[in-house]
Amino acid sequence: MPENIRTLFNQTRKRTEEICSFLKTEDYSVQPMVDVSPPKWHLAHSTWFFEQFVLAEFNPKYKPFSEDFAYLFNSYYNNVGERVLRPNRGNMTRPTVSEVYEYRAYVTDNINSMLAGQQSKELIEVLTLGINHEQQHQELLVYDIKYILGNQPTFPTYSDLFVMDSISDDQRFYKIEEGVYTIGHQDNSFCFDNELGVHKVYLNEFEISNKLVTNKEYLEFIDAGGYSNFNLWHAEGWDFIQQNEIIAPLYWHKINNDWKTYELTGLTDLELDKPVTHISMYEAYAYAEWRGMRLPTEFEWEVAADNFNWGQVWEWTNSAYLPYPNFLKAPGAIGEYNGKFMINQMVLRGASIATPSNHSRKTYRNFFPASMRWLFNGIRLVK
């Protein structure tokens, strides 16, 4: 077994715990909305994944830490049994935070013991998936921590680990010529199954912005009445902002006629030159309409990605999340990882300041419902 896989496993386990190290014990079990999972649940679920799919499958002598944990910390894998419903994750004050950390240590130690000997190709493949799975949860942890703290009346500080840079570039547009392009993951490095099915697409000529939309530019949209002009919105998006009384991005607060925003460093003045973030796809679409432009498709984004910097926020595309040609789901529970979510979701491309470095590849297909605002997302325009 390559030693770097074992090293990456231990680094990944440690990194998740570092992200949580800035929390107070009381922060670990909170679930302020259904889409936010408590930090304690992330710590335990990513551990259960290794226990279920690595230890239980490849070590016949393995003894589970607790028979209850598979029920408590399974997420959506119907093939491996019943589970606590997602909206109820915040109801679990037990097991305690300390018990969850004991669980993590137990599983980590058992994985390391397994890896001390010669291992099969199949085990390494599942272990690699587990590492990437936990890294995905590291990013979700940051989203969820920000939502948990950002909805408290005192706007507490978390840390300065995840701070976006200002955008100083002048806007220009890169022209991409009409043609047939190859899409999908094309080398032997790790990727998720939704990136596979390399295929050709035909694209018309288009021009794509070199930079993300800033807070200043988005504020102009707000001041111009963008949230009150139904002509700019999808019908579903218009209903969404009306029903939820949305007038600005998530975490924006108007205090004494000045816009403030909650960041993980606390409540601050709105920094105009930073990328606008925490908006739904509906809002991204409406802004593009207001500017007389549009969002890129996911294929346009992938073809153009070498022409600009990306990585501060995930970028909404105008593409529905669908399987590539010849997409194949793995048998059993592993096959539930991506395929069953290929409906009612929109694709985001790029990466964010919370994305682990090896997840920043131009073929990576992130996906969320069009209404989601708590992730780090933003806008790149096409004309």
Summarize the structure.
By secondary structure, this protein is an alpha+beta fold. The protein has helices at residues 3-20, 39-58, 69-73, 97-115, 121-150, 215-223, 235-243, 281-290, 298-304, and strands at 173-176, 179-183, 199-203, 206-209, 252-255, 258-263, 266-269, 314-320, 346-350, 366-368, 377-378.
List unreliable stretches of 5+ residues.
none
One letter per element, helices H and strands E, the order comes to: HHHHHEEEEHHEEEHHEEEE
Shape: globular
- Largest β-sheet summary: 4 strands, mixed
Adjacency order of strands in the biggest sheet: 10-9-8-11
Summing up helix and strand content along with how strands pair, one would put the structural category as alpha+beta
Helix content: 25-40%
**Terminal Cα separation, in Å?**
49 Å
What's the CATH H-level superfamily name of the largest domain?
A: paralog of FGE (formylglycine-generating enzyme)
**Total beta strands:** 11
Contiguous helical run count: 9
**The CATH top-level class label of the largest domain:** Alpha Beta
Count of separate structural domains: 2
Using the coordinates shown, work out and report the CATH topology of the largest domain. paralog of FGE (formylglycine-generating enzyme)
The radius of gyration over CA amounts to 22 Å
CATH architect. name of the largest domain: Alpha-Beta Complex
